[in-house]
Structures are given as structure tokens and as C-alpha cells.
Specification:
five-stranded mixed β-sheet; two-stranded antiparallel ribbon; alpha+beta; 210 residues; 8 helices
Length: 210
């Protein structure tokens, strides 16, 4: 692993200053400390390999720090027979972690845009969601970062996004209210300027009978 990692939190190329990355051994020792603090024995059979597993899981859960949205949105298809109407990908599942408590929040994203110079592969939008979801996040920041990346790399005539998620920091701890959904939206371009376009987006997201 790199000795230094860029703590990328903003969309596009914006980054925080690089921070030193601890060794794998340091990370595993930190997990052992937390197990002790929780009140268990990290040397017992069921936990002896837990620090290694947790560190390996962190590499997957937070892999978004090592990914760049520019690489995901690097190819635009211009030969689309002049298509310029709305493109919508809905029900994109994601799993992220709250930056305040490091517990999961889980949900789905709905993304639409009006192309100007071409379209991007549909799977790329799902991958873009993961780039930002696989970091410590707030839902509000996640929403804004996805929109900004699409704006910067696709230059569309407008972007609309809705994210709905359940936060385990509300379900498992604190007020402990399971099943509560949080919804965030962001609109740019034609979606921001025309309320009818916002209504069209909402109708298409919800669909008939949803």
C-alpha cells in the first residue's frame, strides 16, 4: 500500500492535503485496541484474526479514496443519432458510512441528465456513485459530489439527482428509529431553471404505481 494517501473528499480533482497512511500492522493494532475497549479479549479464538479481517474489509469499504471520478467518466459517446432528451438511471443501490459515527447508511440513487456533447455509459453512473459512497460521508455531501463530478466531466445541459437512504446511526443508536428514510436532491441547469423538468424527473423516478 502507498505510504501516503490523498484524502479526496471533493468532486473532480479537488483534494485535501495528502495524509500519512499508517502501516497495516498499525491498523491491525488499532482494531485490537478497540476490541479491548469494547470489553472483549482479542486473543480469544473467535477474535484472533478479526483485526486482519477488519483491515481487509476497510480496504474494500473505503476504496473510493483510491479512485478518481475522472477515470470513471473518461469516455463520452457522441454518436447517439442526435439524442438530446433526458437520460435517467434510477434505483442505483449503494452502501456508505457516516463520517460522524462510522456506521453504515444504505440506500439508492437516481441520476438524470440532459446531454450536450454526448452520453456516458450507463454503468458509469453507477460506478460514480460507488466512488463517493465508498468513503466516509454525509448524504448531503454525497449528493453534491456526484452532481459536481457529472457537471465537470460531462458538461450536460442539466443534472438531477435524488438519494434516499436509511442511516444506521439513527436506527442502531441514538433515537433508534428503524425504517426512517432521508431524502436529498440537487438540480442544475435546465432542471434548476424549470420546475416542470423537476416534476418530470420526480415522476420518472417514482414511476407508475411506485
Amino acid at each position: 500500500m502507498d505510504a501516503v494517501v490523498d484524502a479526496r473528499r471533493e468532486a473532480g480533482s479537488a483534494k485535501f492535503a495528502p495524509v500519512a497512511r499508517p502501516s497495516r500492522e498499525d491498523a491491525e493494532a488499532a482494531v485490537k485496541t478497540l476490541l479491548l475497549w469494547a470489553g472483549d479479549d482479542p486473543t480469544r479464538e473467535g477474535l484472533v484474526d478479526t483485526p486482519k479481517r477488519v483491515v481487509k474489509a476497510f480496504e474494500e469499504l473505503y476504496k473510493g479514496y483510491r479512485e478518481d471520478p475522472a477515470d470513471v467518466l473518461d469516455r463520452v459517446f457522441e454518436e447517439v443519432e442526435g439524442y438530446g432528451s433526458i437520460v435517467l438511471v434510477r434505483d442505483i443501490p449503494f452502501y456508505s458510512h457516516c463520517e460522524h459515527h462510522m456506521v453504515p447508511f444504505v440506500g439508492k440513487a437516481h441520476i438524470a441528465y440532459y446531454p450536450k456533447n454526448g452520453v456516458v455509459g450507463l454503468s458509469k453512473l453507477a460506478r460514480l456513485v460507488d466512488v463517493y459512497a465508498r468513503r466516509l460521508q454525509t448524504q448531503e455531501s454525497l449528493t453534491a459530489q456526484i452532481v459536481t463530478a457529472i457537471e465537470e466531466h460531462l458538461d450536460p445541459r442539466g443534472v438531477a439527482i435524488m438519494i434516499e437512504a436509511e442511516h444506521m446511526c439513527m436506527s442502531m443508536r441514538g433515537v433508534q428509529k428503524a425504517g426512517v428514510s432521508t431524502l436529498t436532491t440537487e438540480f442544475t441547469g435546465v432542471f434548476k431553471e424549470d420546475s416542470a423538468e423537476q416534476a418530470r424527473f420526480m415522476m420518472m423516478v417514482r414511476g407508475s404505481g411506485r
